[in-house]
Amino acid sequence: MTCTEFLAELGEFLDANVSVGLRADLEEHLERCEHCVITLRTTRKTIEIYRNHEIYELPVSIRERLQAAILAKCKKGC
Amino acid sequence: MPIIQTPGTEEVHPDILLVNRARQGDVQAFEQLVKQYDRQVFRIAQHITQNREDAEDVVQDAFLKAYEKLEQFQGNSKFYTWLVRIAVNESLMRLRKRRTGRMVSIDEDVETEEGSMPRDLAEWRPDPEAQYGQSELAEILRKTIQGLPPGFRVVFVLRDVEGLSTEETAETLGLSVPAVKSRLLRARLQLRERLSRYFRKKDEDGVK
Predict the structure, then answer these.
(1) Which residues form the domain of B34?
(2) B56 → chain A, closest CA residue
(3) Number of structural domains, chain B?
(4) Cα separation of B31 and B15, whole Å?
(5) What 3-state class would DSSP assign to B176?
(6) Which B residues, 136 through 165, put their C-beta within 8 Å of a C-beta on chain A?
(7) Percent of chain B scored above 70 by pLDDT?
(8) Does residue B30 belong to any structural domain of this protein?
(9) Which residue of A45, B135, B146, B208 lies most exposed, with the fewest beta carbons within 10 A?
(10) What ipTM goes with this model?
C-alpha cells in the first residue's frame, strides 16, 4: 500500500468504517510509514479539538432573549 | 440520549414525544426542544453565515419555521436532523440576502487540491491546546475553520462537530454520501495542515 492509497482510506479508517482485511492492510502500512502515522494522529487530534472546544458561544443573556422571543411567537400561533 | 422503551412497542426517541405534545399545542414541550438545540443551531448558523447577528436571527427563524411545520415532520428522520436542515436553509437564505447579486451555494470553491496531500509532517506536541489560553485557542480555531471553502466547512461542522452521521449530513445538504465523504476528508486534512502551524513540536521541545 502506498501513502496515497492510505490517504484515500483515511476518512473511513478514522470513522472505523473499514473491513477487517482493509484494516489489516492500513495497519501494516502504518507500521512502516512514520509520515502516515503522524497524519493519522494529528488528523484525529484535529477532529477532537474542534469537537471539544466551543468556538461560537451563545451568551446566556442572548440565549434567554431568543428563547423568550421564539416562545412568545409560538404562543401567539407564530 | 436515553431511548424510552415501551413494552411491546418500538423505541420512541424522547424528542418525538415532545414533538407530539407540541403538535397538540403544548408550547412548553416545544420550549424544551428549543433549550435542547438552540446552541447547536446557533453554531451551525454562525459557521455558515460567518455573522453573529445573522446567526441569532437564524436561531429564531429556524425554530419558528419548525414550529409552523411540525405537522409536516414525518418522524422517519430524527427531529434534530430535520431541524438542522431547516437551520442550514435559513442560514443560506441569510447569506444570500447579504450578498445580493451573488450566488451563494455550499458548492462554492470545492475544486481545490489544497490539503489533499499532507505537507506538514511534523509531530504535534502531546497536549497541543494546552499552550494557548482559552480565548486564544478559540481564535485560532475560528480563523482556521473560516479559511475552509464553505462546502467543506459545513460538511465538517455537521459531521464532526455536531455529530450527524454521514447519511444524515448528505440528506441535510442534498449531497451524495460519496460527496460528503470526499469533502469531509479534504476538510479534515486542510484543517490539520493549517493547525499544524500552531501545534507542531518546536525545537525547544527537544526534537532534534
Answers:
(1) 14-98
(2) A66
(3) 2
(4) 12
(5) coil
(6) 137-138, 141-142, 145, 156, 160-161
(7) 84
(8) yes
(9) B208
(10) 0.92
Let me know whether B33 and B85 are in one domain: yes
User: Which residue among A46, A49, A66 sits closest to B38, beta carbon to beta carbon?
Assistant: A66
Residue A38: list chain B partners with CB under 8 A.
121-123
The pLDDT of residue B121: 82
Q: Which of B46, B166, B188 sits opposite A43 (nearest CB)?
A: B188
Domain ranges of chain A: 3-75
The Cα–Cα gap between B69 and B83 comes to 10
Q: Are residues B80 and B154 in the same domain?
A: no
In a domain, B53, yes or no: yes
Asked if residue B19 is part of any domain, the answer here is yes
Cβ-based burial of B172 (10 A; exposed 0-12, middle 13-18, buried ≥19): buried
Answer whether A11 sits within 8 Å of B181, measured CB to CB: yes
B188–A46: do the CB atoms touch at under 8 Å? Answer: yes
Is 1.10.10 the CATH number for A3-75?
yes
pLDDT digits (tens, 9 = 90+) for A7-63: 999 999 999 999 999 999 999 999 999 999 999 999 999 999 999 998 998 999 999
Q: Is residue B94 part of a domain?
A: yes
CATH code for position B184:
1.10.10.10
Place of cell 472505523: A16
What would the mean pLDDT of B41-64 be, rounded to a whole number?
96
> Which of the two residues, B178 and A75, has the higher pLDDT score?
B178
**With contact defined as beta carbons under 8 Å apart, do B199 and B126 qualify?**
no
Is B111's pLDDT higher than 60? no
**Of B82, B98, B114, which residue is a domain's last?**
B98
What's residue A35's pLDDT?
A: 94
Write down the pLDDT at residue B113: 59
Distance from B117 to chain A by nearest Cα, in Å?
Answer: 8
* Chain A residues with CB-CB distance to B160 below 8 A: 47, 50-51
The three grid cell numbers given for residue B101, joined into one nine-digit string: 447579486
